[in-house]
Amino acid sequence: MxxxxxxxxxxxxxxxxxxxxxxxxxxxxPNPPTDEIVxxxxxxxxxxxxxxxxxxxxxxxxxxxxxxxxxYLAQVGVGAxxxxxxxxxxxxxxxxxxxxxxxxxxxxxxxxxAHLEKGATGMEKxxxxxxxxxxxxxxxxxxxxxxxxxxxxxxEVDIAQLVYAPCGEERNFNINTELRVNGGTSDxxxxxxxxxxxxxxxxxxxxxxxxxxxxxxx
Length: 218
Known about the structure:
By secondary structure, the protein is mainly beta. The chain has no helices and 13 strands. The two termini are 29 Å apart.
């Protein structure tokens, strides 16, 4: 199922009382429920995700969901406004899962394109949390110029650190992302440096991978 609107991306971490008890194949991607999962958007806020500029799609095997963007761009230099050096997005969503299961976000893959002049830097940062839980420490990745190519970052959570949605409760899930470009020692009067998370082709997107756990019987 695809829900279209503004979004941005990120990953799941915080403290858990015990590691997950996985009995199926793979450390991060155990067999998902056979029924369909549905992602509903509650709110979208941020300069990097104006309404209608992003789309969310759940994979057919229920192991992941993908967010693609069309206007998530941070830039400095010629043609850039003073506020364009930083763009962000907070996505608040509800994940409806089959009865008897809960989920965590085990991995996030971020992709985009960057053109950074020599002396400039770009940064992608992400964090997330379930409603009623403490926000996680942001995970950031820095890219240094000169660079003019696609970029990709992967954040992966150890099994013992996975944070699952409470069984039997439906809590909103918050994803926060940010792009930031610093002109540094580059010639911002004559050049432009920028960094995007966007959908210029089918391979440029952000993918969040689910880990599944069966809830105790009532």
